[in-house]
Structures are given as structure tokens and as C-alpha cells.
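Model it.
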Amino acid sequence: MDPIRNPYAPGAGQRPPELAGRDEQLTAFDVVLERVARGRPERSLVLTGLRGVGKTVLLNALRSAAVRKGWGTGKLEARPDQSLRRPLSGALHQAVRELGHPNPDEVDHVLGVIRSFAEREAGADAKLKEKWSPGISSAAVRGRADSGDIEIDLVELLSDVGGLAADKGLGVAVFIDEMQDLGPADVSALCAACHELSQSGLPVIVVGAGLPHLPAVLSASKSYSERLFSYQRIDRLGREAADRALAAPAAEEGAEYDEAALAAMYDATGGYPYFIQAYGKAVWDLAPRAPITADDVTVAAPEAERELAVGFFGSRYERATPGERDYLRAMADADEGIDPVGAVATADVALVLGKKPQSLSPARDSLLKKGLIYSGERGRIAFTVPHFGRYLRTQA
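Modeled.
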């Protein structure tokens, strides 16, 4: 098969040639956009799932849908070492530009509020190099979104931006990837702002994406967050959607899979979108001709696993310290391949290591902060990457 025509795209956040299995989410979001633009009440949206299920890809697809409707959009990726002020200011700056409001004075005012919101982080006595330089020429609007209380400031900021959108009968959507990495104060402020905006009817929504424990992070911040957001769990693809993700791009290039090959690919990938792209690329490059057969999948499997071992599993494993790696391997041993995400009790991990659970708390907490594991319920933990335990057992 010609590698130049290989249609598969195993990249972080890279849109696959066929976005299979996400029609329900895309259709539902179109309804949300229309309702919000017409002043109807709607909840903001939170996508949750493991690494490699396509949350970032879907987030970008939803943003594209909002852009097609004429909405103002901005996107940011949360980081545990960064406050929300500056990245959100940049995202809203872009959203205001996309709206194209016809009144320059009103736009100038809102851009000044964005600048004021961002510069409040540096403080009044900050040096010039410490101040935010977003490319906004408008003067900062003093006394608006600059109180220093992130909750008050965020409500004022989003209210002003939402007012611009309402003037045009459109809306503004802020897309936040890795939402679980927001600091506690920022999470609390974001929930409060969404609550206030939903009550005032302004056309502003937040679309977040994060790991499976994100709902718990939001709920711990504000109890009403369970009613504030619409939560959608993004999971691996079913057999039909997985087959379409492989077969449709191949058909565009005049190739096809036989039924046995599609079955073998599903068994190998488990329906996880990133794995499908990695296997699809390896099989295409190594298959001698079409139709692609189950034997071709068998031949290409070691190459696909090597690619995953380096680019998907290995890069995450390298971030762990020796003590943390012992903890990860103990999780894999405790699970014994029963669960694709290696969900185990913390007591079982301690039993494998022959230590008291309390003594392992530092390693567990560090792995949680690094996003390598998550806790879906008290006393249990799981890998954020599917089949990570299988990878660890193979390495051992």
C-alpha cells in the first residue's frame, strides 16, 4: 500500500479522517447553540473520558460547529501551574474578534474590560515585562472585572462579553481542555459565573473536557454543579463506529478491509479511537495490497504496539519517578488485566507492595496530580490511559 496515501492520523488532538461515533454529541450541540442564541435556557457542557478516546478532537469539532453558526469562540488548555485569568483573556479576545460587533465603541469597552481582567493578575506595581500584552490596544477599564476576587471579576467579564453577543442574536462559547487541571479557586469562580449567566439569560456557555473524575472536581467546588452542566461520557467506539473509522478513509483511497480484518482490528484496538488510528496507520504501511486481511493485521500489530509504547504509553511512564513507577506496576499487578483501565482498590496496591496504604499516599497523590491515574470513587484508583496496565506488564 502506498504510504503517501495513508489516511490515518494518530496524533494528539488531531482530527481523524472519519469522526465516527460522535454524531449524537454533534447533533445535541447544534440544538444547544440554537436554543442559547434564542435566549432559551441551556446548560454548559462537560465531556469526560480517558486519554485517547477523542475528547480534544470532539471539543474542536464542537467549536467548529459554533463558528459555523457565527458564534464567537475561544479555546484554552488548563494547566495546574497557571491561573485562569490570562488564558481566558486570550480566548475571549479571540471570541470578541470573531463576533464582529458593528459598534466599535462597545467593542472597545469590552476589550478594555478583558485587558483589565487579565492585568489584575500581575498587580498594580508589576513591572512592564510582567504585565499581559494581548495585542489589545484598548485602554483597561478600571473598576470592571479587576476587583481581585476571581468570582466577581469573572461574572462581570462574561456578562459584558455576553452582552455583545446578545446584541447580534448570537452567542459566545469558551472551550476548556484538561479542565480538571484548573485551580480550586478558578473552578469555583467558573461554576459561579456559569450559574449567574444561566439565571440572567446571557448567551455564554462553557464547554469543558477532562478526565473521568472531572465531575467530582466540579461537585467538590460547588454542590449545584451537578445541575449546572450537562455531562457526557466519551467512551470507546462500538464495533460499527470503529469499522466506519477504518473503512471510510480507506474507501476514499480506493482500498478496503475484509470482514476478518475489521474483526481483528477491533480486537486489537478495543475500539479506542487513538489505537484505531495507530493500528490503521501501521497496517496500511505494511499491507502489500488491498483488500487488507486479518493476516496483514497480525503482521502489523508489533509495529503498532511499538508506536503506542513510545508515543502513547512510554511518554507518560517517563514522567513518573522510580517510586511512582513502582506504584503504577503494583496497580497493574493488582488488576491482572481484568479491567482495561486497571481500576483497583488502593488497599490491593498496598498489599502487592507489602506496605501500609498510608505510606503510599505521597506517590498516589503525585500520580493524581500528574494525570496518570484518577480516583473515580473513594478507596479506588484507575489509569487515565486505557490498557496502561497491559503495557506495564509487557515491559516487566
